[in-house]
């Protein structure tokens, strides 16, 4: 008697359908890195505009509209890449096809750097959010230093 059981049901035929993503699912899965990379920028921009005073706050709406426009361009470019490379590709594949080996290596290296910096910024933003919600988590600093930081 064998200890290892053989499966009785056959695997479904690989029609490729189980690997397909809808447009919404594809954008959600493939654009998370790009969205996360720009997620902290608007907050920093509004903070700088607030520090500039009333004159700076007047730029809030134009900056917000510019960021929304950039996200629309990002979405459209992802749709174009998905249409041109339905089996996958990304920055490395697109650069390799259209720009050559050296450009594809630069694209791949820049993505690795982006991933590392994205994690660092996310952790810093998370710590800032937690210490903002729970100030007792801040290290014991002089109160004037805390006020300067925030």
How does this structure look, described?
This protein is mainly alpha-helical. The chain has 8 helices and no strands. The longest helix has 33 residues, at 101-133.
Number of strands: 0
Which residues form runs of ≥5 with pLDDT under 50?
A: none
Strand content: under 5%
Largest β sheet strand count, sense and barrel closure: none
Average residue pLDDT: 75
Count of alpha and pi helical runs: 8
Query: Percent of residues in helical segments?
Result: over 70%
Q: What is the element string, with H for helices and E for strands?
A: HHHHHHHH
Radius of gyration: 23 Å
Which SSEs are present, and which pair or pack?
Layout lengths: L22 H8 L1 H8 L1 H11 L2 H4 L2 H25 L5 H9 L2 H33 L9 H7 L1
Nutshell version of this structure?
The chain is 70% helix and 0% strand. α3 runs antiparallel to α5 (60-84) and α6 packs antiparallel against α7.
Main features:
150 residues; mainly alpha
């Amino acid at each position: 008697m064998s200890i290892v059981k053989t499966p009785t049901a056959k695997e479904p035929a690989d029609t490729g359908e189980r690997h397909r993503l809808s447009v919404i699912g594809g954008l959600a899965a493939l654009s998370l890195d790009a969205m996360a990379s720009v997620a902290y920028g608007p907050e920093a921009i509004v903070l700088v505009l607030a520090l500039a005073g009333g004159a700076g706050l007047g730029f809030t709406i134009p900056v917000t509209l510019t960021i929304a426009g950039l996200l629309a361009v990002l979405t459209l470019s992802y749709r174009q890449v998905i249409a041109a490379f339905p089996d996958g590709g990304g920055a490395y594949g697109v650069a390799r096809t259209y720009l050559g080996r050296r450009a594809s290596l630069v694209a791949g290296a820049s993505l690795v750097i982006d991933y590392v910096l994205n994690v660092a910024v996310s952790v810093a933003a998370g710590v800032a959010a937690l210490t903002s919600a729970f100030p007792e988590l801040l290290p014991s600093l002089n109160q004037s230093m805390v006020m300067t930081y925030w």
